[in-house]
Amino acid sequence: MSQPFLGYTNDVDKAFPGIRDFRVTVTEDPGGYYVRDAAQRMNVYTKGSAARVHRCANPQCQQGGLDIQRLVLFSGPGSHAISCPGHDGSPKGRRKGDQCDNHFDVTIEIERE
After folding, report:
1. 65 part of a folded domain
2. Into how many domains does the chain fold?
3. For the segment 60-112, what is each residue's pLDDT rounded down to a tens digit?
4. Strand partners, 81
5. Among candidates 47, 51, 56, which has minimal Cα distance to 109?
6. Which range of residues forms the domain containing residue 34?
7. Is the pLDDT of residue 1 over 50?
8. d(CA 45, CA 56)
């Protein structure tokens, strides 16, 4: 896990209070512009295998991707179409370029305690 959940914990039970399990299916770049192999476009995250962030496949994208924890806690179950919030600028954000044109189709299933 590259970034801790909530900014301070690596304990998934603390990061997802009141949630027994979840399944987040992320289908990225449906047109195949950044990811040519269709099998690599889909990623599945569960409570046991969750990463904090799903990175954007656009190699020029800076500060983009999906915050898995935020999706589970605040978006709720269902299907969501999400544009990448990143940009084609400098890595630290000093120079912002055009908005990243990648997008994600996300399906969230949540089993609450």
Report:
1. yes
2. 1
3. 898 899 999 889 988 889 999 999 999 987 666 567 788 999 999 999 999 99
4. 105
5. 47
6. 12-112
7. no
8. 15
